[in-house]
Design goal:
By secondary structure, the chain is mainly β. Strands 32, 34, 37, 38 and 39 form a five-stranded mixed β-sheet that branches. A four-stranded mixed β-sheet has the order 7-14-13-10, with no helix packed on it. Mean pLDDT is 82; it is low at 527-534, 567-578 and 607-624. InterPro entries: Cadherin, Cadherin-like_dom, Cadherin-like_sf, Cadherin_CS, Cadherin_Y-type_LIR, Catenin-bd_sf. It holds the Pfam family CADH_Y-type_LIR.
Length: 715
């Protein structure tokens, strides 16, 4: 309440109020000065209000005292409960953690005045989650309270924490929050096989690296803690099988490492071990993190093809062996217990010439055609072995046959020798050096000997000297030679080798006698081919040129005669006139017959071959075809034919004379009547051909011929 010393109680003064909340939260009685609050005040919204009050004269409105200021403070009461910063907390800790392991800290705040009483003093407690977890009352830190909590038993926990003000005393306000705690996995469980023995079956034909079976050890852990590595530790199939891990399913896949053979061994026993790849040392006290199991693999028998004793065969044979000589034997057996008999054959795709054959019973390979090492050194064939009872069961083996050399080829010149000797040559002059080759193979090198044939040794004009190095030289025996007496000498030379049996051949050296200068350079010989082995002589060239000139003159004369030829009609004699009747043996159906012909052709000149020329004279000038306008569809056929007839009468490129153009139209008759001799009288004397002169230029030829005949008769 406000009161002025000037207030005498007569109602002459008036109290007014201004400042924070004046007129809204706070009102003043203008007569008594009492200040009242109109609403419930909240310290958390505004703890202090500053107001100003003044007393004024009601009549004059002037203040009777100076304005005074006063402060209103709101005293706090416990009207706000603690509030957590999150509605839900999420946390995780490793399983098997020690007691007192920190999990998470929760925080709650109180809007009340912390300086006034215990309204804002918060204390934490756990309402749900015991005995697994605990919370510190003052800090809100949650810790583990139970030892060896196992994720495999329980993974999720829900803890409810309460925050209460007034220091937790009675009458305090409280709030709660939920904490979801998850136990994360650690490798505290070793792998365990669900059974101690596994059994699988595998056919002996199982390909390498093919799976035989799968085994799996169970591990209660997850993710990398459950990763397992499998291995074969011992057993009689340690080197026959392998095992790998399927990363997706953590299964052990047993595969074949070596080929299985039922006849050799049909049962394998393995010991397989499963081990964790990520071991936690803290839990080694729980035992070894591995387990083992026994795997029995039964090999099943299948019908297998025959097996050769070797993967490949190499044989040798001399090239001069007689036919049907055995050069070697291949052997194959049925690996099955039945030991079925085997038959052999040669794959003819590898021996197209059928040089070799094989005994189907014992596998002996023998020759069926002569061999020649110089033609083919190696023969690569394939032998097939198949079961007699089941030919589908077959196998193949390559056989490499090497043909050994024998001395069956005589040596021969390394090249064709054709040389010359000068007419002025001196005696003992070297004119040619010879060398030889041999198709046969020599392990110690070839040794050739050269000599003149016996028939030429004494009478020859030349001598032969063996150089003992597989070469020989031809020397002149006399001083001069004459090409007029003998232009060419043929010198037979015998070449022999030193192998067994000795082979020899007689080769011929051609020696021409030529004219040479004083230095021995050849000038000319009787044989031009020696100088120009690939050229033509001068006489031959002149003859070829004369032939070409004569051919050109003939062509020019023929072209000139063609140009000078006069045009002559095909009908030379006026007396040589014949009536040619062309019979088509086809009777038309008249105008009503629309199937016999296409009348559209008559109306469309584009469909007619207009490149026809006269055939009674030699054409001199080709006229360009004249295009005629297409007739209208409603044009009368008679008018159409008359129009075309008129055009052809004046057209110099029309069809040839004395031709019959059939238009497939039967008219009402012709003004000139029929020209056919079939309707004529028996004698020509009764006919009058003067009317032909009135039919235009097209019939002028007929008028001249028949008119001349009448005049001849009259004379």
């Amino acid at each position: 309440q406000l009161h002025s010393d000037q207030d005498k109680g007569d109602g002459s003064l008036k109290y007014i109020l201004s400042g924070d909340g004046a007129g809204d939260l706070f009102i003043i009685n203008e007569n008594t000065g009492d200040i009242q609050a109109t609403k419930r005040l909240d310290r958390e919204e505004k703890p202090v209000y500053i107001l100003r009050a003044q007393a004024i004269n009601r009549r004059t409105g002037r203040p009777v005292e100076p304005e005074s200021e006063f402060i209103i403070k709101i005293h706090d009461i416990n009207d706000n409960e603690p509030m957590f910063t999150k509605d839900v907390y999420n946390a995780s800790i490793p399983e098997m953690s020690d007691v007192g392991t920190f999990v998470v800290q929760v925080t709650a705040t109180d809007a009340d005045d912390p300086t006034y009483g215990n309204s804002a003093k918060v204390v934490y407690s756990i309402l749900q989650g015991q005995p697994y977890f605990s919370v510190e009352s003052e800090t809100g830190i949650i810790k583990t309270a139970l030892l060896n909590m196992d994720r495999e038993n329980r993974e999720q926990y829900q803890v409810v924490i309460q925050a209460k003000d007034m220091g937790g005393q009675m009458g305090g306000l409280s709030g709660t929050t939920t904490v979801n705690i998850t136990l994360t996995d650690v490798n505290d469980n070793p792998p365990r096989f669900p059974q101690s023995t596994y059994q699988f079956r595998a056919p002996e034909s199982t390909p390498l690296d093919s799976p035989v079976g799968r085994i799996k050890a169970n591990d209660a852990d997850v993710d990398e803690n459950a990763e397992i590595e499998y291995s074969i530790t011992e057993g009689d199939g340690y080197d026959m099988f392998g095992i790998t891990t399927d990363k997706d399913t953590q299964e052990g896949i047993i595969t074949v490492k070596k080929a299985l053979d039922f006849e050799s061994k049909n049962l394998y026993i393995l010991k397989v071990e499963a081990t964790n790849t990520h071991v936690d040392p803290r839990f080694l006290y729980l035992g070894p993190f591995k387990d083992s199991a026994t795997v029995r693999i039964q090999v099943e028998d299948v019908d297998e093809p025959p097996m050769f004793s070797r993967p490949a065969y190499i044989m040798e044979v001399k090239e001069d062996v007689p036919l049907n000589t055995i050069i070697g034997t291949v052997t194959a057996q049925d690996p099955d217990a039945a030991k079925n008999p085997v038959k052999y054959s040669v794959d003819r795709h590898t021996d197209m010439d059928r040089v070799f054959n094989i005994n189907s019973g014992n596998g002996s390979i023998f020759t069926s055609k002569p061999l020649d090492r110089e033609t083919l050194l190696w023969h690569n064939i394939t032998v097939i072995a198949a079961e007699i009872n089941n030919p589908k069961q077959s196998s193949r083996v390559p056989v490499f046959i090497k043909v050994l050399d024998v001395n069956d080829n005589a040596p021969e010149f390394a090249m064709f020798y054709e040389t010359f000797v000068c007419e002025n040559a001196k005696a003992e002059q070297l004119i040619q050096t010879l060398s030889a080759v041999d198709k046969d193979d020599s392990y110690n090198g070839h040794q050739f000997s050269f000599s003149l044939a016996p028939e030429a040794a004494s009478s020859s004009n030349f001598t032969l000297q063996d150089n003992r190095d597989n070469t020989a030289g031809i020397f002149t025996r006399k001083t001069r030679y004459s090409r007029h007496e003998t232009s060419t000498y043929f010198l037979p030379v015998v070449i022999s080798d030193n192998d067994y049996p000795i082979q020899s051949s007689t080769e011929t050296v051609t020696i021409r006698v030529c004219a040479c200068d004083h230095r021995g350079k050849m000038l000319s010989c009787n044989a031009e081919a020696l100088i120009h082995p690939t050229g033509l002589s001068t006489g031959a060239l002149i003859a070829i040129l004369l032939c070409i000139i004569i051919l050109l003159v003939t062509v020019v004369l023929f072209a000139a005669l063609r140009r000078q030829r006069k045009k002559e009609p095909l009908i030379i004699s006026k007396e040589d006139i014949r009536d040619n009747i062309v019979s088509y043996n086809d009777e038309g159906g008249g105008e009503e017959d629309t199937q016999a012909f296409d009348i559209g052709t008559l109306r469309n000149p584009e469909a007619i071959d207009d490149n026809k020329l006269r055939r009674d004279i030699v054409p001199e000038t080709l006229f360009m075809p004249r295009r005629t306008a297409t007739a209208r569809d409603n044009t009368d056929v008679r008018d159409f034919i008359n129009q075309r007839l008129k055009e052809n009468d004046t057209d110099p490129t029309a069809p040839p004379y004395d031709s019959l153009a059939t238009y497939a139209y039967e008219g009402n008759g012709s003004v000139a009547e029929s020209l056919s001799s079939l309707e004529s009288v028996t004698t020509d004397g009764d006919q009058d051909y003067d009317y032909l002169s009135d039919w235009g230029p097209r019939f002028k030829k007929l008028a001249d011929m028949y008119g001349s005949m009448d005049s001849d008769k009259d004379s």
